[in-house]
Amino acid sequence: MKVVPLGQEIGKTSYPGRGIVMGRSEDGKCAVTAYFIMGRSANSRNRIFVEDGEGIRTEAFDPSKLEDPSLIIYAPVRVLGNKTIVTNGDQTDTIYEGMDKQLTFEQSLRSRSFEPDEPNYTPRISGIMHIENGGYNFAMSILKSNNGDASSCNRYTFAYENPNAGEGRFIHTYMGDGDPLPTFEGEPVSVEIKGTINEFADMVWDSLDEDNKVSLFVRFIDIETGEYETKIINKNK
User: Fold this and answer.
1) Cβ 123 vs Cβ 181: under 8 Å
2) Which whole-number Å values give the CA distances from 6 to 23, 50, 126, 179, 228, in the listed order?
3) Lowest CB count within 10 Å: 7, 49, 91, 218, which one?
């Protein structure tokens, strides 16, 4: 698979929805992840990311304007020992609790399916990074309806061992704008990861559609020490 510039891939559409990037920094020293959210409705746009322990959670920017919190308020990032979990919904908790009970990433997600937001049936996208003894691997998952058929859930897991420096994978919820929104297709896209955490975060943020972008989380984790640096950008301030 050809490695493409991440900004170019993000900018292909005005509405990729929610997206997860995982990979390795350009210098090879850090595990890298990014998670962004977008919104078309006032309810979806009324959000910010806030730090919550070693992870983050979504929060209403203006609580008085919060409508339905069921699919927009959740913890996108949680840390379990040497594992960092990143998802686009409350399945973060499902994965955390399952793996804490010695289930695998894939097994933990067996109890979940796509979101019940008819007619979009938004896919649940998830990723997990595992760092141990100077080694690094990650996996990504997408749970989606069978071409809009809510009675059937298609489950895909992609695993990446010892990713190359400066490379990552990008998965997002939608192929573009529409009504209903077209679900992501294929395997996670092979993308370039360049620059420092600030340069990388700024590039991702600047590549997102100005009207629809809401929040961005980026983390660089030192593969040798486990120490990490986090950057959060919120449109609402």
Assistant:
1) no
2) 12, 25, 18, 26, 22
3) 7
Report residue 186 as tokens.
């294929």
What six digits make up the tokens of 122?
A: 């938004």
pLDDT in tens, the chain (237 residues): 899 999 999 999 999 999 999 999 999 999 999 999 999 999 999 999 999 999 999 999 999 999 988 889 999 999 999 999 999 999 999 999 999 999 999 999 999 999 999 999 999 999 999 999 999 999 999 999 999 999 999 999 999 999 999 999 999 999 999 999 999 999 999 999 999 999 999 999 999 999 999 999 999 999 999 999 999 999 999
